[in-house]
Design goal:
The chain is an alpha/beta fold and 400 residues long. The chain contains 14 helices and 12 strands. 41% of the residues lie in helices and 13% in strands. It binds pyridoxal-5'-phosphate.
C-alpha cells in the first residue's frame, strides 16, 4: 500500500543532521561506544532555577491555553530583556511565542512567501532553510560565501538580489560554520535588503554564543525603518539548554506578527503555558540567566580553544577558528582523491573505523566539509582527537 504524500512535503528532504544522529543511536543500540560529535544540542542540563520556575507555574495552575501569541508576561519579558541587553525598542505587538526556533522560522517564512518567490540563502546553510522555502513553493537561491571565509557580506547580497527576491535568511553565529557576521556588516545587509524591498529572517538560535572579540548583535537594535524588514526567530533551546522544552519566539513588525499568530492559531496554538511562565521568569531574573549563559558560553569557548588547533594537526583537515555557536566546520577537501571521493566517505571512515559520528557538509550545501559539534564533554573530544590521529594521521605540527 502506498500513501499519497502531498507534493509540498514530498519535495522536502529529510534532515541530514538527524540522519547522523540516527546512525549514532543505531550503533549505541548495538552496544557500540560511539563518540557522537553530530549533536547540535547542549550537553548541559537546563539551569535549576528555570526548572523551579516551571514547577512554580504548574503549582499556580498554569495548565490551560494561553493567548496564541503567548502570555502578556512572556512577550513583555522578551521586550524588556532585549531593551536591557541590546538597547532595542519594540513592544508586545512585535512579539509572538512559538514552539521553538524551528516553528518561529516556519511561521515567518510561510506568512511571507508566495509560490515562485526567490529566497536568498548563504552557503553553507542550516539544513532546514531550503526545506522551508521548498515547503512554501519558493525557490532557494544560494549565495556562495567561500571567498569571504563563509561570512556573508552586503555586497554579496546586493549582487544576488533580483526582482523575484522576497526574503534573505541569515544565521549568525552560524550553524554549521561557526562564523559571525560583524554588526556593521549586518546593518549594511539589512540596508541593502530594505532598499530593495527584501525581508530578512534572522535565525538567532546561537545569538549568545559568540566568543570574544565577536559579540552578539541583535537586529532588533536597528532603527525602526530597517527593523520593519526584519523578523528575528529566537529560541531558548541552545542558549538556556532547553531543547526539549520547545519554546521560541518571533520579533517582527506588527503586521507580520499578526499573520504569524493567525497561522499558529491553526497549528500549534502556543507553546506550553507553564514553560512560557518559566521563560518569562528566567528573563526577568536577568542576573541569574545571564550568569548561566556566561558559564555555558565560557565552557564552549574553552572546548573550542582546545579542539580547533588539534583538528588542524590532523592530516588533510583545515579549520579556521569559529567565532560562535558550538561547531567546527572542517575543510577535508585535502583528503579527497584516491582513498576518499567525498566528505561523506571520510565521515563513513570515521564512523566505521573510529565510531566517531560527525555530520557531512553536503547537507549544509558544502560538500568537502565535515561538521564537528563540541557540545560534548572534553573527555569525548580528547578521545575523538586520538582516534582521528590514528585513522587519518597527523601533520608535522605537534601540540605541547
Ligand atoms: C541554526 C538553527 N536554527 C534553529 C534551530 C532550531 O532550534 P529549536 O527549534 O530547538 O529552537 C536549530 C537547531 O538545531 C539550529 O541549529
Amino acid at each position: 500500500m502506498t500513501f499519497p504524500v502531498s507534493d509540498n512535503v514530498a519535495a522536502m528532504k529529510g534532515s541530514s543532521t538527524l540522519i547522523a544522529a540516527q546512525a549514532a543511536a543505531d550503533m549505541r543500540a548495538r552496544g557500540i561506544d560511539v563518540i557522537d560529535l553530530s549533536v547540535g544540542e547542549p550537553d548541559f542540563d537546563t539551569p535549576d532555577f528555570i526548572k523551579q520556575y516551571a514547577w512554580e507555574g504548574l503549582q499556580k495552575g498554569l495548565t490551560k491555553y494561553t493567548a496564541t501569541a503567548g502570555t502578556v508576561e512572556f512577550r513583555r519579558s522578551i521586550v524588556d530583556f532585549f531593551a536591557d541587553r541590546f538597547g532595542s525598542h519594540f513592544d508586545d505587538a512585535n512579539v509572538a511565542a512559538a514552539c521553538g526556533g524551528k516553528q518561529a522560522l516556519f511561521n515567518a517564512a510561510c506568512t511571507l512567501l508566495n509560490p515562485g518567490d526567490d529566497v536568498l540563502i548563504p552557503k553553507p546553510y542550516w539544513v532546514t532553510f531550503p526545506e522551508i522555502a521548498t515547503f512554501c513553493r519558493a525557490n532557494s537561491v544560494f549565495i556562495d560565501t567561500e571567498s569571504t571565509g563563509f561570512v556573508l557580506t552586503a555586497d554579496q547580497v546586493a549582487d544576488a538580489i533580483t526582482e523575484k527576491t522576497r526574503l534573505l535568511i541569515i544565521n549568525s553565529p552560524s550553524n554549521p560554520s561557526g562564523r559571525v557576521i560583524p554588526a556593521s556588516e549586518m546593518h549594511r545587509i539589512v540596508e541593502v535588503c530594505a532598499a530593495n524591498d527584501v525581508y530578512v529572517l534572522s535565525d538567532d538560535c546561537y545569538l549568545f554564543f559568540a566568543y570574544p572579540p565577536a559579540e552578539p548583535f541583535s537586529l532588533t537594535s536597528l532603527p525602526d525603518e530597517l527593523r520593519h524588514y526584519v523578523c528575528v526567530a529566537g529560541s531558548f533551546s541552545k542558549t538556556y539548554a532547553m531543547t526539549g522544552w520547545r519554546i521560541g519566539y518571533t520579533i517582527a513588525n506588527p503586521e507580520w506578527t499578526k499573520a504569524m499568530i493567525k497561522l499558529q492559531s491553526h497549528s500549534a496554538t502556543h507553546p506550553t503555558s507553564f514553560v512560557q511562565y518559566a521563560c518569562a521568569k528566567a528573563l526577568q531574573d536577568r542576573d541569574a540567566t545571564l550568569a548561566a549563559v556566561k558559564t555555558m558560553t565560557a565552557e564552549y569557548e574553552r572546548r573550542r580553544n582546545w579542539l580547533i588547533p588539534r583538528l588542524n594537526e590532523i592530516k588533510g583537515f583545515v579549520c579556521p577558528m569559529p567565532e560562535g555557536a558550538f561547531y567546527a566546520f572542517v575543510d577535508v577537501r585535502g583528503l579527497l582523491g584516491e582513498k576518499y571521493s567525498s566528505s561523506a566517505d571520510v565521515a563513513d571512515a570515521l564512523l566505521n573505523q573510529g565510531f566517531i559520528v560527525v555530520t557531512d557538509g553536503a547537507g549544509f550545501g558544502a560538500d568537502g566539509f565535515l561538521r564537528f559539534s563540541y557540545a560534548t564533554s572534553m573527555a569525548n573530544l580528547e578521545r575523538a582527537v586520538e582516534k582521528l590521529k590514528g585513522i587519518l594521521g597527523t601533520t608535522t605540527v605537534v601540540s605541547a
